[in-house]
Structure formats: structure tokens, C-alpha cells
Amino acid sequence: MPAISYQLYGSRNWPLLDTLAMLYATGFNEVEGYGALFAQAPSLTEDLATAGLNMPTLHYGLADLERDPGAAIDLAQAVGAEAVFAPFLDAEDRPTDRAGWEVFAERLVAAGKPLQKAGLIFGWHNHDFELVDLGDGVTPLDIIAGASPDLKLELDLGWVVRAGLDPVHLIRTYGDQIHSAHIKDLAPQGDCVDEDGWADVGYGVMDWTAIHGALQGAGVSRYVIEHDNPNDHHRFASRSLATVQAL
């Protein structure tokens, strides 16, 4: 069984210390941090240690990383992280054609070099906008993955399905370039509207048995449970962890 982590973004509407205590009591040992959290939690390293949790992976804004890679490295080393993922592009910053995505992919390769030199893994976390067909079946995520074998992926499976693609196919396509996976479930059409259409893992439409088999075949060793907008994060955390542990 891979390591199981929890993306703290889903608990942004609750106090951090309460969240960390809840996650540990629920059975988590690992969490994943995100950009806004780092500015809001100056005692993060101590808070994690007090709660008994580790933070092996981080989401860190690309522009912030390019502006001051040393700060990202210092943070990763302080919390004991092994990998840093750039997580998102605002709509106005997204390339619109293949050539633009090729330039962006090279930007990612360059941004990752200081982190890799410091012994960290660096990569990209997708949403659905990187999964559009640019022509001949090529997507922006294909271009990103093809830019360098050292540029790893944190494949968000919920966004893969929301984009209308087959997660098992993409897992097999990217293989060992996938460092970790976001385990996120999609509610049936019209359900969970108050939670932006996301579901607790195992309570939506995703075939987790098939997905888990493909992830294990690709050697993915960390599953990061995520929900972008749960109205009850304890319910989400406990039910989702039970689903993943039963795979």
C-alpha cells in the first residue's frame, strides 16, 4: 500500500491546529501543504511536529518559486519535504497553443533546476485545462511531461475525469513519471452541488479498483486525498481514508 497523505487546501476553512489534530486522530500520518498556508502559518514546522504529522510534498506557486527558489528550498527542508509541485496557472497566464505550452514546459524545466540541485523532486500538478486537445491528440500535459524526464507529475485524477479523459489510460501513458496522485472523486451529475460537484473518495463515480491497479502498476508510491470544497472536512477525511485503505 502506498503512503497516504491529505491535501490541506481542502481544510482551508477550518483552523489549522484543529485540522492537524483531526487528521492525526482520523489516522493520517502525512499532509500536503499549499502556498497560502505557508504565509499564514509561521510555526508550521513546530505545528506539524506537535500534531505528529509529516509533510513530504508541497504545492508552491511557480512565480514565487522563480522569484526566490531559495525560500522554497528552505521551506521544503524545514518541513522535511521530498517533492515540490507547481500547482496552477491563472486563466490569463495559460498558453493558448502548442508553441506556447512548449515555452511554458521549458519554463518549468528551468524553474525546477535549483530545487533538483538541492536534492528535491520537482514537477507539475494538473487541473483540467492541461488536458484539452491541442491537435493530433496532444495535450498540454503531454508537452509538459515530454519536456524532461526529470520533470515529474502529480496527477490529479479528479480533474482528469472532469476533463472527460480516462484516468487508467493516462496513468499508463505517463507511467513512472508520476511521482504521486491526487485521489479525488467526482459526484454523480447534479449531486453535491454545494461542494462544487466533488465527492468523498469512494462515494462518487470513479472506479478506484481499476485506478489503484494502474497506479500500482506505474509504481506510484504516494496517494494524496483531496476535496476542493468539502462542507464537512472530518467526514470527507475519515470516509476517504477508509476507502483508500480498503483498496
List the helices and strands and how they pair.
Layout: E1 3-6, H1 16-26, E2 30-33, H2 35-40, H3 44-51, E3 54-59, H4 62-67, H5 69-79, E4 83-86, H6 98-117, E5 121-125, H7 140-147, E6 151-156, H8 157-162, H9 167-174, E7 178-183, E8 185-186, E9 198-199, H10 208-217, E10 222-225, H11 233-245
Parallel strand pairs: 1-10, 2-3, 3-4, 4-5, 5-6, 6-7, 7-10
Antiparallel strand pairs: 8-9
Helix pairs in contact: 6-7, 9-10
Pfam family, one: AP_endonuc_2
Keywords: Isomerase
InterPro entries: IolE/XylAMocC-like, Xyl_isomerase-like_sf, Xyl_isomerase-like_TIM-brl
What does this structure look like?
The chain has 247 residues and is α/β, with parallel strands linked by helices. It has one domain: Alpha-Beta Barrel (TIM Barrel). It is globular and about 45 Å long. The mean pLDDT is 97.
